[in-house]
């Protein structure tokens, strides 16, 4: 079994409705761009003459698809794709999206980013109505619920809205329907990003705007929290906020700006790059220190390091050479392998660091594996002092909305004080950005935020990763 110790990414969703018969190829490129959000499995489904054809498997996007599959087996004008990081249901082929659900008069393919906190109740209820399930993923529950309500309402839009009203938690959805409709839905809090773009041939919907850029679509806007959008023949035919927010808790995941999203994306009005630079500036104001150089931890600490350097006037210098062929370190299943992975991934650049007092900036400390190893390796390469600065507040609580960490016991900030963590990782000082500093850095964002992993959750959540496997 895979042991998960890090914040898992998200999933990525991408969909397109185009006048040309190349929806699968465009979706493939979209998923390649969004690979950073999920590396366990990938899938694409296309609508073809009232049928849904699909291909999905475990692995990276480039491993799952061949040119032959894309060009000959997945021909169509509408496609929807998914890359997965599991949050509900284990890492198996059956749990890879998109999910295909048949109903009396048609079929849908559903790609989901997020986590449905009442998936267990909904699944039990649907089973009692005779609905069958082939996986233990909450995303299949979403697809089945939508199909069930489309059948009952005898209308796609009404069915989607009805089903959306029953879903709790986080859901950014793209659905391809056999009636040649592409549908985008974002939950009323807007936990996960979702945006739309257009070109002369059609409309694309993506988790992040970087995928619109790389596939040749001009960004139009983000899908609003609670909104349902229908696209037919490459044109938007319906757009309205119809799913209601029940209370004032929750909001867009602030970790999207800290770590998850690619920094060339713009989410809900705020550039991820700009947010990260602002976080670094705030850190320099909150935790100044006398030092010779500022260094970022590749990859996701690099932009905050730029901000720290600008604000403090301390030169920015690379401290590590990164092996670009190694993925994000949490994909390694045992502690031994994780330790090895950090060394393999980041090798200190001795010439830059010998005798230097270093401000080392990273985006987060989860278990503490990365920080401990890199502080040690900088010191053994000759660094005089290492002052660690973190562009997120202490990560103390697990997340229920589309990221995954197995237990609070694995979160170092849940077990130790900041002084103890500083000692544990061997740094000369340690400073985390404040919640206020973080929110100020992200103030251009149009939405309010979820900060649950730093501040705790107000609502009780009723689903665990294994729950649906036992029903
Ligand atoms: O405290 P830890 O348990 O070590 O986890 C924290 C580290 O994990 C993430 O990096 P990761 O290597 O996953 O990806 P990145 O290269 O995109 O920064 C994050 O950016 C931190 O560097
Ligand atoms: N990270 C995600 O968005 C995961 C989607 C879904 N909950 C799954 O486990 O497949
Ligand atoms: S708990 Fe943290 S990681 Fe989860 S949605 Fe909220 S801010 Fe994001
Ligand atoms: Mg990192």
Automatic annotation (TrEMBL):
Residues annotated to bind [4Fe-4S] cluster: 253, 399, 450, 453
Domain Glutamine amidotransferase type-2 intervals: 11-234
UniProt-listed PROSITE patterns: GATASE_TYPE_2
Pfam families linked: GATase_6 (PF13522), Pribosyltran (PF00156)
BP-aspect Gene Ontology terms: 'de novo' IMP biosynthetic process; purine nucleobase biosynthetic process
Pathway stated in the Swiss-Prot or TrEMBL entry: Purine metabolism; IMP biosynthesis via de novo pathway; N(1)-(5-phospho-D-ribosyl)glycinamide from 5-phospho-alpha-D-ribose 1-diphosphate: step 1/2
InterPro entries with a match to the protein in the record: GATase_2_dom (IPR017932), Ntn_hydrolases_N (IPR029055), PRTase-like (IPR029057), PRTase_dom (IPR000836), PurF (IPR005854), PurF_N (IPR035584)
UniProt keyword terms in alphabetical order: 4Fe-4S, Glutamine amidotransferase, Glycosyltransferase, Iron, Iron-sulfur, Magnesium, Metal-binding, Purine biosynthesis, Transferase
Keyword field contains Glycosyltransferase: yes
Cofactor(s) the protein needs: [4Fe-4S] cluster; Mg(2+)
GO molecular function: 4 iron, 4 sulfur cluster binding; amidophosphoribosyltransferase activity; magnesium ion binding
EC number: 2.4.2.14
Active-site feature positions: 11 (nucleophile)
Cofactor mode of binding and number, as noted: Binds 1 [4Fe-4S] cluster per subunit. Binds 1 Mg(2+) ion per subunit.
Entries under PANTHER family matching the protein: AMIDOPHOSPHORIBOSYLTRANSFERASE
Function statement: Catalyzes the formation of phosphoribosylamine from phosphoribosylpyrophosphate (PRPP) and glutamine.
Name of protein: Amidophosphoribosyltransferase
